[in-house]
Amino acid sequence: MKNIKVRVKGASNYGILMNRFTALDQAKVSEGGGTVTMPGVKKGDSQGEAEAGCYRLAPVGKTKKKGNLYIPAENFRQALINGAAYEKGKGRSNLSKIASASIFVNPAALDLGTNEFSIDTRAVVNPFTKGRQVKNRAYLPEWEVDMVLQYDDELISEDQLRAIVDHTGGKVGVLDFRPAKKGPFGRFTVIGWEPVDEAGNPLAEEEAA
Predict the structure, then answer these.
(1) What is the C-alpha separation between 21 and 18, in angstroms, rounded?
(2) What is the pTM of this model?
(3) How far apart are CA 197 and CA 107, in angstroms?
(4) Hey, where are the domains in the chain?
(5) What are the residues whose beta carbons fall under 8 Å from the beta carbon of 100, sequence distance 6 or more?
(6) Rounded to an integer, what distance in angstroms lies between the CA atom of residue 180 and that of residue 174?
(7) CA separation for the pair 102, 109 (Å, rounded)
(8) Edge-to-edge strands of the sheet including 2-10?
(9) Peptide bond into 179 cis (omega under 30)
(10) What is the pLDDT of residues 45-91, one digit of tens each?
(11) What residues are paired with 137 via a beta bridge?
């Protein structure tokens, strides 16, 4: 296994939207739809609704400040697997299946470095009733995040991994209303790419080759 330290930056014009799948969403699915009231969030409370749907780290120490926002690493990994569908493998196949077995993202929570967000309010289609409703979501107009991509170099090359990340940034995106879901949000570009060892230390050129 090899490791690459990667830094990505959100594409200009569109940031990221957060819409965390909660236990209440699961309750809706289990009940076959219908309405489930979100505890602590009053009707018309756009800030409360957006807060309930964002990904937030726990506060550090005894501080009363809210924890930073983050992207779940597994969400990013699934996006990479989808992005691998755009990279050709052997014959007519693509690298999606290989990516699912060979690419892993660390740490588990990708810290966005801020605990603040704006609110995006727009009409969406309710997946249960198929009717339109207003949805308030946490929105970051600008974002950057660091991660370490661990990959099996017996199954995939560094060049193939880079191509998958680039495909993902431009064609798939991350989190809500992204290109994979016919939206414009969650796109990104790579601004840092460095082979590292398991401790996160940069490798010498001969070691990285």
Answers:
(1) 10
(2) 0.85
(3) 15
(4) 2-208
(5) 81, 84
(6) 9
(7) 19
(8) 103-106, 144-151, 2-10, 188-196
(9) no
(10) 889 889 989 999 998 777 778 999 999 999 999 999 999 999 988 87
(11) 120
Helix pair 158-167, 73-83: axis angle to 10 deg = 100
- Give the pLDDT confidence of 115-142 residue by residue, as tens digits: 999 999 988 877 667 778 888 999 999 9
∠11-15-21 over CA atoms, to 5°? 130
Lookup: tokens for 172: 């798939």
Q: Kindly state the tokens that stand for 189.
A: 């570009």
Residue with tokens 């409370």: 45
Give the chain as a 3 state SS string: CEEEEEEEEECCCCCEEECCCCHHHHHHHHCCCCCCCCCCCCCCCHHHHHHHCCCECCCCCCCCCCCCEEEEHHHHHHHHHHHHHHCECCCCCECHHHHHHHEEEECCEEECCCCCCEEEEEEEECCCCCCEEEEEEEEECCCEEEEEEEECCCCCCHHHHHHHHHHHHHHHCCCECCHHHCCCCCCEEEEEEEEECCCCCECCHHHHC
CB atoms within 10 A of CB 159: 8
CB 156 within 8 A of CB 98: yes
